[in-house]
Every structure is written in structure tokens, then in C-alpha cells.
Design brief:
Helix content: 25-40%
Strand content: 15-25%
Largest sheet: 7 strands, antiparallel
Number of strands: 14
Distance between the termini: 49 Å
Length: about 375
């Protein structure tokens, strides 16, 4: 559900039932005024992709294809993403580039264009097209070492892409964008990610592999990933298969695993016996919130589905926020975090000039 004429997903929310719908209408109408409230459908668990391209009327150049780490349903401004895509097949990327080219020509774009796609079951879906610069342009420019906005401005002034320096997307490194959130400044706020944009900035991590680049991005955003300790895992039913690789990775690194009853049962069914069951807040004490407040938890993977579940788990995320415990609220980001921890354990991070990545790619 979303109000009319809003930016940044303002007051946009995933509604799961009549009670939540009633509450949503009572609050969203204040934002929408006399305009209609819109009902949309989205692809659950799809991979979202941002594309920035420049068109001069004759030629189209794709400047960046960014694969989101959080699945569709999280606002694109709040999602971490990687350039180039870290897991999409080359054939899918090629199809995305083909569709971008066709859209730019059909819309007669002069300058920058941003397209958002969703990929599910190897099918490419079009979410929206904007014939303008996007918030991703500064990230793309730094990731590939090319002044994208400058090229677009020259095209808008009448120059042709053929007369401008060639944009090279065949880079030998991977850059990860991570959003920066102001949650710590607002007591009582729920830091769960949603269709409503909450981030106030972004950082970039860059390295030769995705896991290390993701780790750097987390560090830049103020999240210090633990190299060991205790991880708490509680995920919605549809995420249980998706979270399994992350838990297996943590166990390989000798993490202790805490889980709520449903998640713990699932993990044991998958052959992971060394799991300690912990109570939810409403189930009694000591519960998971007590454990977080007492400093017994070093990492949190917590995904939710449905209004009641979101309310029930809010205390977990809030206590993690004030205890500065790293937390991830999507399965995809949780898996990325587990691999990032493994990368940090294998080698120390080094300081390197940004320009050195460009020189290697452009050589």
C-alpha cells in the first residue's frame, strides 16, 4: 500500500491482513490527503537490480548494473548493492542491458536514465524507469572511475557518446554500497527495513572479492562484524532454507548459535544439533532481549513476516541497536555477513588508494 505523490516510499507499507490494513488506512490517509491510496503487488524474494545508463538519441551506454543484496520489498535507497552483480548469471545481466538499451531508445532519453528491474526464476521484470539521474550515480562513478554525471551533462548539451571517453564496465574489483541509518538518534524507532526509505547516507566498500568488499562497507557504515562469539537466529518460515548457509558458515567458525523454538527446530532437522533454544520476549524470562541486554549476543539474524510478528520482534532489534550488536533483517544480507566474517578472519584489511583499482581495470 502507498499514498499518492510521495517520494522515498513515504508511508509505504506491506500489508498482510485486515487489522493491519485498517491501521494503515488511518495513518496513511494523513500523508495522501484527498488523493487515492494505491494498492500494488510485488514479487516476494526477487532480486532487485538498478541500472544507470546514458543515451544520446543514437547510442546507449550502460554505466552500471547494480545487484541489490536485500530482496525486493526493501526500498532501493536502503538496500546494499554490488557493482558488478555478485551472483546474477551473465545471461541475465546481458538481458537486463538489452532491455535498458531498448527502453532508452523508445523513450528518446537524452542524458541519464535509471531503471529498476526485479529478477525471479530467471525472468526479468521491469519495476520502473526514470529518465533522470538517480541516487546511485555517485556510487557508480566512484566504483568504475568515470565521471558519469559529467558525460551525461555533455550529452544533454548536444555532444555524442562516440566523442566522449569510453566507459569500461569490465572492472577487476567489486564495489559494495551500504546504506547508513540514523536509528540511534531516534529512541523507540524500529530499525527493520521496509518499502519506506529510512537511510540518510551511504558508504562504499571496494576489494577484489564480494565478501571482503561487503565487510568494508559494513565497517564504513559503523557496523563492526564480530570474528567469533554468539549469534542469535530467528527467521520467518519462508527464510529458513535461505538462512541455513549463513548458520552453517558461522558454525564452521565456532560461533555459538542461539535460536527461537521454530528456527531451532528447523536447524536441528537440517543436522545442526548444537543450537541453544532461547525464549521470545512474550514467552517468559530469561528471554532473548535479556540476553542481548546482558551482552551475551554478538550477532543477530532476524527476519519477520506479518504485522504481529513484526511487533513481537521489535524489542529484539531495538535492544540490538542500543547495545551496538550487528543485526541483519533480511536473509540475503545475513548470508553476506557470514561470508564477510569469514573473509575478515582469513586476512587483515589493508589501506589502498581508490585510484589503484581504476588503473588495474583500465590497464
Amino acid at each position: 500500500m502507498r499514498p499518492s505523490y510521495v517520494l522515498g516510499g513515504r508511508a509505504m507499507e506491506i500489508v498482510e491482513g485486515p487489522a493491519q490494513l485498517e491501521q494503515y488506512i488511518s495513518t496513511a490517509v494523513q500523508v495522501s490527503g484527498d488523493s487515492p491510496v494505491l494498492i500494488d503487488q510485488y514479487l516476494r524474494d526477487a532480486i532487485e537490480v538498478d541500472v544507470d545508463a546514458i543515451c544520446d538519441g543514437d547510442d546507449v551506454v550502460v554505466a552500471g548494473v547494480l545487484q541489490h543484496i536485500e530482496e525486493a520489498g526493501v526500498h532501493s535507497g536502503d538496500s546494499a548493492c554490488s557493482l558488478p552483480p555478485y551472483s546474477l548469471p551473465k545471461a541475465i545481466v546481458a538481458e537486463i542491458e538489452r532491455q535498458t538499451d531498448a527502453l532508452a531508445r523508445a523513450l528518446q532519453v537524452r542524458g541519464l536514465m535509471n531503471v529498476q528491474f526485479a529478477v525471479k526464476n530467471e525472468a526479468v521484470y521491469l519495476i520502473e524507469v526514470n529518465p533522470r539521474a538517480s541516487r546511485t550515480v555517485p556510487f557508480v562513478a566512484k566504483a568504475i572511475g568515470q565521471p558519469i554525471a559529467k558525460f551525461a551533462a555533455r550529452v544533454m548539451a548536444g555532444e555524442k557518446l562516440k566523442a566522449l571517453p569510453q566507459i569500461n564496465l569490465d572492472v577487476e574489483h567489486i564495489a559494495v554500497k551500504e546504506a547508513v541509518f540514523p536509528f540511534a538518534r531516534f529512541p523507540g524507532v524500529d530499525p527493520v527495513l521496509s518499502p519506506e526509505m529510512k537511510s540518510t547516507g551511504e558508504v562504499m566498500g571496494i576489494d577484489s572479492d564480494f565478501a571482503t568488499a561487503f565487510a568494508k562497507a559494513q565497517l564504513g557504515a559503523g557496523t563492526k562484524l564480530p570474528l567469533g562469539g554468539t549469534a542469535f537466529v530467528s527467521v520467518k518460515e519462508s527464510d529458513k532454507d535461505n538462512i541455513l548457509p549463513a548458520v552453517q558458515k558461522l558454525i564452521e567458525m565456532d560461533f555459538t548459535i542461539l535460536a527461537t523454538s521454530g528456527t531451532a527446530q528447523y536447524l536441528r532437522e537440517q543436522g545442526i544439533d548444537d543450537v541453544e533454544t532461547v525464549l521470545k520476549k512474550r514467552e517468559g524470562r530469561p528471554n532473548i532481549v535479556d540476553r542481548i541486554v546482558d551482552g551475551d549476543v554478538d550477532l543477530i539474524f532476524n527476519t519477520t513476516e506479518g504485522w504481529q510478528s513484526l511487533l513481537d520482534s521489535k524489542a529484539i532489534r531495538t535492544s540490538a541497536l542500543y547495545g551496538r550488536v550487528p543485526y541483519f533483517t533480511t536473509a540475503a544480507a545475513s548470508v553476506a555477513a557470514a561470508h564477510a566474517i569469514a573473509a575478515l578472519r582469513e586476512r587483515k584489511l589493508e589501506v589502498r588508494a581508490l585510484q589503484s583499482y581504476y588503473s588495474a581495470s583500465h590497464a
